[in-house]
């Protein structure tokens, strides 16, 4: 770089102007021959270690309790046949950047290392193909769209807002964290398509520079029009660490369909001659005879006899021969109807089975940090691997939870072993992290700034001179619940008393979490005494300034569920009898004015409507959620909720780990009923649960509605 260049750079910096790219390249010219650069690249990565909250513990009971060494179980179980010790698989809901950082730098890292380290990562990161988090709901013969939440929309904008540069920034930090977390003798597989494959390959080479790499061509069937080469494959990049496990996948031979087609001369056949060769000829040799005198049947037999030879890096499935015979690939790595869960980006289990078998052994720990429908975890469980899987999308995590319970049931029915899994998130610690980020760690100002932030998002005005009330909106007063703990019944009583003193009759209480004892009956009692209290959830979206400034944040009322309990001796059954939600996604009046002739499905105030508008502007509404149970997708019961405290591990500044009780209890999922694509019906009455001893118990019932939102209730039970 000459003096003229240097002076020009100084002038541009002083003027606050952008440097031309050629100057940037010159500045780094002495560091590397090739430097991977994009606008926004940062070398620093997140290194925070937030504690994980245990939301739910799920373990289908074994047929009978077993001890270590028994044929059925590889770990100790309790009297219910539920796992007591050993690794518990992890389904984690949240931002995978914070999750990866907390796994890599927090106490769970030690647990991972005790299991031999993370031996395999498979990820299927998002592509630029539209919103990543919306999903469809089948209701009343119609399809309603659940739009992505603001936090999910923000994640999408952060990924694609600036095109490929913001995508690379998002992936770079996460891949660096995965590299940190992956065992030295581990492997990583990254599935991608043509939109980002070339850029992602360079990024991966930059991070996994010492790894042996290969490119797998996954032929998944013809797609596209005939005006150009139809797309027939997607790409999976594989990076293998030194001494990493590799069990070569085997060739699958000819499918029965291809064999019959050959025998009937419906498709052509070839043979090759001569010694071993490379490329296409080598590929052909695996399926046909090299002896030109062989009959067609002998060639077919030869192909099937060689089915157990190592496969190449072109994967098509049981019909790999199709590309040879008719130049029309029909990939059979497609998920079957029995495994389909209706998730838009679901990958076939056969594909993941091949990857997991190739690069891990039984008992190894595998991970997928873009969970989707949970295919990686489901296959890992079936193959006897331990797993961690994460996703930001609420619907994704709920879909995976149901699917993994199904796997547990399947293995239980066949007498095979399986592990418990826990549903985790970062909970209040994630909220504290967001607040610290917004306030630059200024703790003195944090509480005031937090209240102002929530009031701004709620579009309420700040008020002074009150002990429990923070703002007002449209004639109603507003209380902002705490950042770190649930809104309690005692807090509501304080609010109620101040409202009575000041003759206020309406108040909205906003909270991230609410104490389980806040029943509809309690709220009704307050109303009958003169104060109408409405409980509303604060969404995580409030921590994004853009969403708040644009007025996009939606608060929605707390839902309620009702049950009926039947106690007989020491047994109890629970019946789900009602569910009330006021969830709102759309504005019907606004939609009716703007829509053209046709129909729309909308969600407003706890109802899903079909709105139809004819060419004359006549509008009709049809309610699709005709019964309360139309809203229920899943419900589960913990018959002894206080039996297990929620203990979290916190890594202190000196590196030691401290265990703390959060004050909450772990939801032990002991019974559940849920809808699947194959079986959409629900049971509304639980099994008869038998208590071992008389006493007072608390039963917790959890409902997940068709939008993936949780609602819970605590029931006091006296067993005599």
Automatic annotation (TrEMBL):
Domain DNA methylase N-4/N-6: 119-400
Keyword S-adenosyl-L-methionine belongs to the record: yes
InterPro entries: DNA_methylase_N4/N6 (IPR002941), N4/N6-MTase_EcoPI_Mod-like (IPR002295), SAM-dependent_MTases_sf (IPR029063)
Recorded GO CC terms: cytoplasm
An example Gene Ontology molecular-function term: site-specific DNA-methyltransferase (adenine-specific) activity
Record-listed E.C. numbers: 2.1.1.72
Gene Ontology biological process terms from the UniProt entry: methylation
Keyword S-adenosyl-L-methionine: yes
Catalytic activity field: a 2'-deoxyadenosine in DNA + S-adenosyl-L-methionine = an N(6)-methyl-2'-deoxyadenosine in DNA + S-adenosyl-L-homocysteine + H(+)
UniProt xrefs under Gene3D superfamilies: Vaccinia Virus protein VP39
The entry's keywords: Methyltransferase, S-adenosyl-L-methionine, Transferase
Annotated protein name in UniProt: site-specific DNA-methyltransferase (adenine-specific)
Organism: Lacihabitans soyangensis
């Amino acid at each position: 770089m000459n003096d003229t260049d240097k002076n020009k750079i100084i002038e541009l910096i002083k003027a606050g102007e952008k440097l031309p790219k050629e100057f940037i390249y010159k500045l780094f010219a002495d560091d590397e021959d090739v430097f991977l650069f994009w606008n926004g690249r940062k070398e620093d990565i997140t290194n925070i270690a937030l504690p994980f909250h245990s939301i739910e513990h799920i373990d289908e009971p074994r047929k009978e309790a077993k001890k270590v060494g028994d044929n059925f179980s590889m770990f100790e179980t309790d009297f219910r046949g539920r796992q007591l010790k050993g690794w518990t698989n992890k389904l984690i809901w949240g931002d995978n950047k914070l999750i990866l950082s907390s796994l890599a730098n927090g106490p769970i890292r030690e647990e991972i290392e005790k299991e031999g380290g993370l031996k395999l990562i498979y990820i299927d990161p998002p592509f630029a193909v539209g919103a990543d988090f919306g999903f469809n709901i089948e209701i009343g013969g119609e399809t309603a769209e659940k739009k992505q939440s603001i936090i999910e929309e923000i994640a999408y904008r952060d990924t694609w807002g600036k095109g490929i540069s913001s995508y690379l920034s998002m992936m770079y930090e996460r891949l660096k964290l995965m590299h940190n977390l992956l065992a030295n003798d581990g492997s990583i597989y990254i599935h991608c398509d043509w939109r980002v494959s070339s850029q992602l390959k360079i990024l991966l080479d930059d991070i996994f520079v010492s790894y042996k790499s290969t490119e797998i061509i996954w032929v998944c069937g013809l797609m596209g029009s005939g005006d150009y080469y139809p797309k027939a494959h997607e790409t999976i990049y594989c990076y293998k660490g030194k001494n990493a496990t590799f069990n070569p996948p085997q060739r699958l031979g000819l499918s029965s369909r291809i064999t019959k087609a050959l025998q009937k001369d419906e498709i052509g056949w070839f043979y090759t001659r001569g010694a071993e060769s490379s490329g296409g000829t080598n590929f052909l040799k695996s399926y046909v005879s090299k002896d030109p005198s062989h009959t067609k049947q002998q060639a077919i037999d030869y192909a099937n006899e060689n089915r157990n030879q190592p496969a190449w890096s072109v994967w098509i499935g049981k019909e790999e021969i199709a590309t040879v015979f008719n130049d029309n690939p029909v990939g059979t790595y497609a998920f079957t109807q029995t495994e389909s869960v209706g998730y838009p980006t679901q990958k076939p289990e056969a594909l993941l089975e091949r990857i997991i078998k190739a690069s891990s052994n039984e008992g190894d720990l595998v991970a997928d940090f873009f969970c989707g429908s949970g295919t990686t975890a489901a296959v890992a469980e079936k193959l006897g691997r331990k797993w961690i899987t994460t996703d930001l999308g609420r619907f994704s995590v709920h879909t995976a939870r149901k699917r993994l319970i199904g796997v547990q049931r399947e293995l239980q029915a066949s007498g095979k072993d399986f592990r418990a899994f826990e549903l985790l998130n970062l909970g209040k610690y994630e909220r504290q992290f967001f607040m610290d980020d917004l306030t630059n760690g200024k703790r003195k100002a944090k509480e005031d700034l937090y209240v102002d932030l929530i009031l701004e998002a709620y579009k309420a005005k700040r008020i002074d001179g009150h002990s429990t009330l923070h703002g007002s909106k449209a004639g109603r007063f507003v209380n902002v619940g705490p950042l770190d703990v649930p809104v309690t019944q005692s807090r509501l009583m304080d609010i109620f008393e101040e409202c009575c003193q000041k003759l206020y009759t309406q108040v909205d209480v906003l909270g991230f979490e609410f104490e389980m004892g806040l029943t509809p009956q309690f709220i009704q009692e307050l109303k009958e005494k003169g104060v109408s209290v409405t409980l509303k959830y604060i969404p995580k979206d409030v921590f994004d300034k853009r969403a708040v400034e644009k007025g996009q944040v939606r608060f929605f009322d707390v839902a309620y569920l009702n049950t009926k309990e039947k106690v007989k001796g020491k047994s109890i059954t629970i019946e789900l009898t009602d569910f009330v939600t006021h969830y709102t996604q759309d504005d019907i009046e606004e939609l009716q004015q703007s829509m053209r002739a046709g129909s729309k499905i909308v969600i407003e105030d706890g109802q899903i409507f079909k709105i139809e508008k004819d060419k004359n502007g006549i509008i009709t509404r049809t309610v699709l959620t005709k019964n309360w149970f139309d809203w229920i997708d899943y419900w589960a019961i913990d018959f002894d909720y206080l039996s297990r405290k929620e203990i979290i591990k916190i890594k202190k500044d000196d590196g030691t780990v401290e265990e703390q009780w959060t004050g909450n209890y772990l939801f032990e999922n002991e019974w559940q009923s849920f809808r699947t694509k194959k079986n959409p019906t629900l049971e509304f009455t639980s099994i008869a649960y038998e208590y071992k001893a008389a006493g007072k118990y608390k039963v917790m019932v959890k409902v997940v509605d068709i939008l993936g939102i949780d609602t819970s209730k605590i029931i006091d039970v006296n067993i005599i």
